[in-house]
Write a structure and sequence with these properties.
The complex is a heterodimer of chains A (331) and B (331).
Chain A lengths: L2 H5 L6 H26 L14 H8 L7 E4 L4 H7 L3 H8 L17 E2 L4 E4 L7 H13 L6 E6 L6 H13 L3 E7 L2 E2 L2 E2 L19 E6 L3 H18 L3 E6 L17 H8 L3 H11 L5 H24 L18
Parallel strand pairs in A: 1-3, 1-4, 4-5, 5-9, 8-9
Antiparallel strand pairs in A: 2-3, 6-7
Helix pairs in contact in A: 2-3, 2-4, 2-10, 2-11, 3-4, 3-8, 5-11, 6-7
Chain B lengths: L5 E5 H15 L3 E5 L15 H5 L4 E3 L4 H13 L3 E8 H4 L3 H8 L2 H4 L9 E6 L14 H5 L5 E4 L3 H11 L6 E6 L6 E5 L11 E4 L4 E5 L3 H14 L4 E5 L2 E3 L3 H11 L2 E8 L4 H13 L8 E5 L8 H7 L3 H13 L2
Parallel strand pairs in B: 2-3, 2-4, 4-5, 5-7, 6-7, 10-11, 10-13, 13-14
Antiparallel strand pairs in B: 1-8, 6-12, 9-11
Helix pairs in contact in B: 1-8, 3-5, 9-13, 10-11
The chains are: A alpha/beta (331), B alpha/beta (331).
Chain lengths: 331, 331
């Protein structure tokens, strides 16, 4: 990867600008609709929204190929949508319908789509990191050139599994992108109450893992940093640790009264909302017009409505099938 | 016509032959675990393998149980056929998150999209004066979890042949091997090979009473049966072999035949495998019983170091003989 090429990542054309904006707006509106459907009791269980963090999912996914593996957390709707998982299959999953991407067995926290190489939706904090190391190890052993991208929150960094995984990935030299979405809160406990070293990207050095931090509220900066990281991984076969500093505007889940942070803090972060940030830049640079934005909003509205319609029309699996998918019993 | 010639072999050598054959037969198979390579395996089961198969197939791992077990699961997702060796069952507690939350759930949570063809082997059992932290019997723990296939290797033919079959299945398999049996010699068929991993086995036919057991209990029960025969008591010995899912048919057929059941296991008594077997007999063959089912289990104490106390913590051959006599007098 030439540095010059990476520099060019911040220069975008109209087509890419519209694509990025469309994806971020799709995630935003999809999440808003999910919250609405939760209050209407169409969706139950835990629901974790990524509103405010859209730039990370969209900026990173741009640089991955279809052959690359993705592993994610319980706040993964945005990652799944950015990866191209069908919005209807995600909404149907949250409705508990068998047309859902995990046949209604997983719900909001466990979205899977192997055709997109999207391996969850893993809801034990840090628990998927060792598996991501293993997937990358399998790629290396089979001399495949794809990489594995593992999303996790900064909360996972306090888990032993993060440290074990960083060590193993570096020791075995596997093509793995550790992608930390640092939204400053592990549920309701702020980073400063959880970590002795709060510049979490510094932890990579202890394992000899190349590391960087980036403004996760700007999709273009995320895209550039991700391109650099992924280029490094493809070139060297070694892991990379990228921290995207971001913020969730909504509560941790639908049960969260947000007692742990000031409204003013949330409002201050909203000033850095990744969607207006990109929109303003594209308008200012003359790459798009207000009509383009209206067009995107209309298109997204239809896409989200289609997803809801698909979920509404979906069917519930027969209770007789309850014990399916425990053992495959296949050889 | 099968070859009826037999060879004398230690349990360790039987395990080693099975493992070596697996590595030769399938290039996707690799062994990862603590000290499996340069040290030759904590119990010398993989001695010489590093030289024979190289570092890509025989991977020493750091003391990161959650990390490397998770990596094994991930490598299975990525298309490999990993055999993960956790040195002893005691350390597997550090990897329970990976085994229970990931290996056992992914098929179900993904609506049947993801198979986890990983084999996890661990040494287990009591009898070497290793004290409380190194003398666990966690078979009941693992047998409790839907999604895991749990095998207990109580004989030499299973030591030789269970692994090959486990590696054919697409579901995660946990294999318990026993330290106390490693140096014991026994005859196995000259051409011994793959063994089924579905059924319990009648290790000794008898008509008066059924001893149902697994693991180190098998040879103890067989020895007790020989002694009891001198008193004219003809005992049947059932080796459960597969602790999850349990083979009901073999158990019920034996109860219907002998009408008396003694269960022998080294794990702690409460909420154990024997608890489950007794429940099933109550549900399925209560009216076939001539006397109440009895069981000999591990005494509920952290296993002590001192030899005489350790011996007293688990059922011995003499205890089995005595219990059977008592049950026979009950008539």
């Amino acid at each position: 990867m030439e540095d010059k090429e990476i520099q060019n990542e911040s220069i975008i054309d109209r087509k890419i600008g519209l694509e990025l904006l469309h994806k971020m707006i799709l995630i935003r509106r999809f999440e808003e609709k999910s919250a609405e459907m939760y209050t209407k009791e169409k969706i139950r269980g835990f629901l974790h929204l990524c509103i405010g963090e859209e730039a990370v999912a969209v900026g990173v996914m741009e640089s991955l190929t279809e052959a690359d593996n993705i592993m994610s957390t319980y706040r993964e709707h945005g990652h799944a949508l950015a990866r191209g998982v069908d919005p209807g299959s995600i909404m149907a999953e949250m409705y508990g319908k068998q047309e859902g991407c995990s046949k209604g067995r997983g719900g909001s926290m466990h979205l899977f789509d192997t055709k997109k190489r999207f391996y969850g939706g893993n809801a034990i904090v840090g628990g998927h990191l060792p598996m991501a190391v293993g997937m990358a190890l399998a790629s290396k052993k089979q001399r495949q050139d794809h990489i594995t991208c593992c999303f996790f929150g900064e909360g996972a960094i306090a888990e032993g599994e993060f440290h074990e995984s960083m060590n193993l990935a570096a020791l075995w030299k596997v093509p793995l992108l550790f992608l930390c979405e640092n939204n400053l809160y592990g549920m309701g406990t702020a980073l400063r109450y959880s970590h002795s070293v709060q510049e979490v990207e510094k932890k990579g050095a202890a394992y000899g893992v190349e590391s960087a931090a980036v403004n996760g509220m700007d999709v273009l900066e995320v895209k550039k940093a991700a391109k650099k990281a992924i280029g490094y991984i493809r070139k060297t076969g070694k892991p990379y640790f990228l921290v995207c500093n971001t913020y969730r505007f909504r509560a941790h889940s639908m049960f969260d009264a947000e007692l742990y942070r000031e409204k003013s803090e949330v409002e201050a972060w909203k000033e850095r909302d990744p969607i207006p940030t990109l929109r303003t830049k594209l308008l200012k640079d003359g790459l798009i017009t207000k009509d383009d934005i209206d067009t995107i909003e209309k298109k997204v509205k239809a896409e989200v409505q289609d997803a809801v319609d698909f979920a509404e029309k979906g069917t519930f699996e027969s209770v007789q099938d309850l014990t399916k998918f425990i053992y495959s019993n296949q050889r | 016509m099968t070859d009826t010639k037999t060879v004398k072999i230690t349990y360790r050598e039987a395990l080693k032959q099975g493992l070596r054959e697996a590595l030769i037969n399938n290039q996707k198979v690799f062994l990862m675990g603590e000290d499996v390579g340069r040290y030759g395996g904590a119990f010398a089961v993989s001695k010489g393998f590093l030289q024979e198969f190289g570092t890509d197939r025989i991977m020493d791992v750091p003391l990161s149980e959650s990390g490397f077990v998770g990596a094994g699961i991930g490598a299975a997702l990525g298309g490999m056929r990993p055999i993960v060796e956790v040195m002893t069952v005691n350390f597997s507690l550090l990897a329970l998150d990976q085994i229970i939350n990931n290996a056992a759930t992914l098929l179900h949570m993904s609506g049947g999209q993801i198979n986890v063809p990983v084999v996890i082997r661990m040494n287990s059992g009591i009898g070497n004066q290793l004290a409380a932290q190194h003398s666990h019997s966690w078979e009941p723990f693992y047998a409790h979890v839907p999604g895991l296939k749990v095998l207990s290797v109580g004989t030499h033919e299973d030591a030789r042949g269970m692994l090959a079959t486990a590696l054919e299945f697409l579901d995660p398999v946990i294999i318990f091997e026993y330290t106390s049996l490693l140096n014991i010699e026994s005859e196995i068929p000259f051409d011994a090979g793959a063994m089924d991993i579905d059924k319990a086995k009648v290790r000794r036919q008898g008509k008066d009473l059924s001893i149902i057991t697994y693991g180190p209990g098998v040879y103890k029960a067989l020895a007790a049966a020989e002694e009891l025969m001198l008193s004219g008591i003809d005992v049947e010995v059932i080796d459960l072999r597969v602790l999850n899912p349990i083979d009901n048919t073999t158990i019920m057929n034996s109860v219907i035949k002998t009408h008396r059941v003694l269960i022998v296991e080294e794990a702690w008594r409460s909420v154990s495998v024997s608890s489950e077997i007794i429940s099933r007999i109550m549900e399925g063959a209560f009216f076939d019983l001539d006397v109440p089912v009895r069981r000999l289990c591990g005494i509920e104490v952290p296993i002590p170091y001192a030899k005489h106390l350790e011996d007293a913590s688990i059922p011995q051959k003499e205890d089995i003989v005595e219990s059977v006599h008592n049950m026979m007098q009950h008539d």
